[in-house]
Each structure stands twice: as structure tokens, then as C-alpha cells.
From TrEMBL:
PANTHER family: C4-DICARBOXYLATE TRAP TRANSPORTER LARGE PERMEASE PROTEIN DCTM, SIALIC ACID TRAP TRANSPORTER PERMEASE PROTEIN SIAT-RELATED
Subunit description: The complex comprises the extracytoplasmic solute receptor protein and the two transmembrane proteins.
Family recorded in the similarity comment: Belongs to the TRAP transporter large permease family.
Main localization category: membrane
Name of this protein: TRAP transporter large permease protein
Top-level division of the source organism's lineage: Bacteria
Length: 435
């Protein structure tokens, strides 16, 4: 069999195995081991422990559990409701004010958690019932939170970008900076659509005549101060030359734990245990997926599949933008069935030679890939954010949530097009701050 035929067979078998519901780490590991034995014999099993542990020994991986603990700590407190309430008072008289407030809260919360499901759950639990109670349609209320939650993997710190940085051997610090302007752009597009749709539908708040005094608006601003302190602390440690990304993640985790203990009184041993338990559980899951993906990548490389695919794409006599469009389509389809971590770790080793050969910036492509992963989080049949929102509001049917999220998907597509036309949106900030 040719290497490309083997690659196609591996793709079909991998999709079939993962479609059974088997945990991703076990499914990818089993597929890798199976093809190694079939094509290289039992002797290849000897390389299994060394390959996995060599990949997991990367010091950069230390940042993963730290950022996960940041998210778990913030999600365990009233931080999300404080953000939401403060923003809603300032934007109360604007058309679509509550939707815009929720999207803004998602963006700020994302800067602390780096996790889309956590952002969806934390903001959605309070925001969706409040929006529906005050007169917003169910599709707009649920769709806005489902889409706003995806900002968690674009606005730094982003667990997705850490995985991409490890897989592509690019600077995680640069990736974080590259996500800032696109993250703000996407937040602005989401808010603009919410404002337009609320104005077009003539949505009138139940308490539209309520006027918050300046005192009422200002009294909640101190609650935003801890968030700003944590964000500034992490950014200063990372880009002030004080700490590496892994050390900055430790600073962020410590600041978030201190915030929830001192300000939100989450100090009971059982409460702290739950934070650490959730962080350990998610970290263990991610590290197992990373270990399995490293073995999977080794198998693909040893069978010459990675090299053959990159060579075949490179030999196509087409414009490089056609190649990029095909890659975007591949990522979008993959996102409908697999979580972001699995897609990034499986496809990055194959796509990186193609991207660099086409003359694209790997840092810029990291942002494009991340927005594609965002799309995957709100596209059926495995749109994780859709199911998180459905769990929060079981009386709202999944098609209604999807209907509300669809226009926000188009905003993401628009953001990808804008990044293709103006790549400086992603590359300017890293170049200015890091050279």
C-alpha cells in the first residue's frame, strides 16, 4: 500500500473508533498501536513507552494544569455573576444590553479561565434565565452564550493555543499576544450582531424604564478590580521578562486561588479540594490525550503518512489560498466530530509543513485554527457548548439553541476572512512587543 492509502485507512479507522464513544486518549492510542504492529511488527511496541514519556517530559506542559486551576477557581465562585451584573448596569439602556453584557462578561471571564465550557456554564447559569425573564427570545439568549463561551479558547490564556504551541513548536507567548486583537474583534462582531438583532426585533426589556443611578453603577466596579489584578499580574509576569509561560501560569493560579479565598470566601477545605480535584481531573485527561497523540503522530511519521500528505499538497498546482480554504474546510468538518485538543494534536504535525511551504505565518495560522475550533464547539453533532447550554436550560430545544448560534458562526467566518485579508490583526501585537 502507498503511504497515502495507508493514511486514508488510518483516517477511516480512527473516525470509526472515536465514533464508538471510546475515550479519545484510549481510542487514539489503540489505533496507533494497531497500525504500528500491523505495518512494523511487534518490535515497534518497544518504542511505545519511550515515545510517550519523551513527549510528556516537555516542561511547557506544566502550564496546562496551572491554567486549568485558574479556570476551576474562578468558576467555583460568584465571579461570573459579579461580572455580568456590573456590565448590565452600565449598558442597561442600550438595545440588546443584556446580551451585550453577557458577551462582554464571557470575554472577561475567558481571560481568566481559558476554557469555553467553563465560560458557558459560569455566565450562562445566571445570564440566560435573566435575559429570558426580561423579554429576550430564547434563541438569541442561548445562542449568544454558546458563541460567547467560545471566546475562552481565543482570548489568552488559551489552553488550545498552548496545545498548538507544543505541537507546532512555536512560541506560546507570541500565540497569546496574537489572540488578543482577533479576540476583541470577534467580541465586537458578536456584540454588533446582538445589538442589530435586538433593534430589528424591537425587543423591549421588561424593566426598560429602570434607571440606575451613578452610585449604583459605581458600587459594583470594585468587584471587577480583582479580575484586572489577576490579568495584569499574569500579563506582566509573562511579557515583563519576569517569568516563562509555565511560571506565569503558576502566578495566575496562585492569584486566582487567593482571589476566591479572600474575596469570595471559598476557603473551606472541601471547597478547595473540589477546585484541585476538578483541575487534576481535567489535567489528567488532557495529558493522556497528549500522550496518545504523540504516539499517534509517531506512528503517522514512521509510516511516512505525514510526509506523503504534506508532499502531495505541496505538489498541487493551485493558489496557496485554495490550499488554506481546503485546510479550513478540513478543520471545520473535524470540529463537528472531535474536540479541539484531539484535532490540534492530530493535524498540526501534518499541516505545519504545508503551512510553512505555502508561506503562511505559523503564529497567524494558530489564530485561524483556533477560530475554526471555536466553530466546532457550536456545530452539531458534537458541539460541546450546545450541550452545556442545553444542560443549563433543558426547556429550550437544541434546534433553537443552534438557530440562535448560527449568526454568530457567520461572525466567526467573517473574522477568518478579515484575518486572511489583514493578517496584521494577529501578527502586529507580537511583533511590537516581542520583536
Amino acid at each position: 500500500m502507498s503511504a497515502l492509502a495507508i493514511g486514508l485507512l488510518i483516517f477511516v479507522v480512527t473516525v470509526a473508533v472515536l465514533a464508538t464513544g471510546l475515550p479519545i486518549a484510549f481510542g487514539m492510542g489503540a489505533v496507533a498501536l494497531f497500525f504500528m504492529v500491523v505495518f512494523d511488527g511487534w518490535y515497534s511496541v518497544n518504542f511505545l513507552p519511550e515515545t510517550i514519556f519523551a513527549g510528556l517530559s516537555d516542561f511547557t506542559l506544566v502550564s496546562l494544569p496551572m491554567f486549568i486551576i485558574m479556570g476551576a477557581a474562578v468558576a467555583s465562585s460568584r465571579a461570573g455573576s459579579d461580572l455580568y451584573e456590573a456590565l448590565s448596569r452600565w449598558l442597561h439602556r442600550v438595545p440588546g444590553s443584556l446580551v451585550i453584557s453577557n458577551i462582554g462578561a464571557c470575554a472577561l471571564f475567558s481571560a481568566l479561565t481559558g476554557s469555553s465550557p467553563a465560560t458557558c456554564a459560569a455566565i450562562g447559569k445566571m445570564g440566560i434565565p435573566e435575559m429570558r425573564k426580561r423579554g429576550y427570545d430564547a434563541d438569541l439568549a442561548t445562542g449568544a452564550i454558546a458563541a460567547g463561551g467560545t471566546l475562552g479558547i481565543l482570548i489568552p490564556p488559551s489552553i488550545t493555543m498552548i496545545l498548538y504551541g507544543i505541537a507546532s513548536e512555536t512560541s506560546i507567548g507570541r500565540l497569546f499576544l496574537a489572540g488578543v486583537i482577533p479576540g476583541l474583534l470577534l467580541t465586537g462582531l458578536f456584540m454588533a450582531w446582538a445589538l442589530f438583532l435586538s433593534w430589528k426585533r424591537g425587543t423591549v426589556l421588561v424593566d426598560h424604564d429602570r434607571i440606575y443611578s451613578l452610585k449604583e453603577k459605581l458600587e459594583l466596579l470594585p468587584r471587577l478590580l480583582p479580575f484586572i489584578v489577576v490579568i495584569v499580574g499574569v500579563v506582566y509576569a509573562l511579557y515583563g521578562g519576569i517569568a516563562t509561560p509555565s511560571e506565569a501560569a503558576g502566578v495566575g493560579a496562585a492569584l486566582c486561588l487567593l482571589m476566591v479565598i479572600v474575596i469570595y470566601r471559598v476557603w473551606k477545605p472541601m471547597d478547595l479540594w473540589l477546585i484541585l480535584r476538578d483541575g487534576l481531573r481535567e489535567s489528567g485527561m488532557l495529558l493522556m490525550i497528549i500522550g496518545a497523540s504523540i504516539l499517534f503522530g509517531y506512528m503517522m511519521s514512521s509510516l511516512q503518512v505525514t510526509q506523503s500528505v504534506a508532499e502531495a499538497i505541496g505538489e498541487l498546482q493551485v493558489n496557496r489560498w485554495v490550499v488554506l480554504a481546503a485546510i479550513n474546510l478540513l478543520l471545520l468538518v473535524a470540529g463537528c466530530f472531535l474536540p479541539p485538543a484531539a484535532i490540534i494534536l492530530m493535524t498540526t504535525p501534518i499541516l505545519m509543513p504545508v503551512i510553512t511551504a505555502a508561506g503562511f505565518d505559523p503564529i497567524w495560522f494558530g489564530v485561524i485554527l483556533t477560530i475554526n475550533m471555536e466553530l466546532g464547539l457550536i456545530t452539531p453533532p458534537v458541539g460541546l457548548n450546545l450541550f452545556v447550554i442545553n444542560g443549563i436550560t433543558p426547556d429550550v430545544r437544541l434546534p433553537t439553541i443552534l438557530k440562535g448560534a448560527f449568526p454568530f458562526m457567520m461572525c466567526m467566518v467573517l473574522a477568518i476572512l478579515l484575518l486572511c485579508v489583514f493578517p496584521e490583526l494577529a501578527t502586529w501585537l507580537p511583533e511590537q512587543l516581542m520583536g
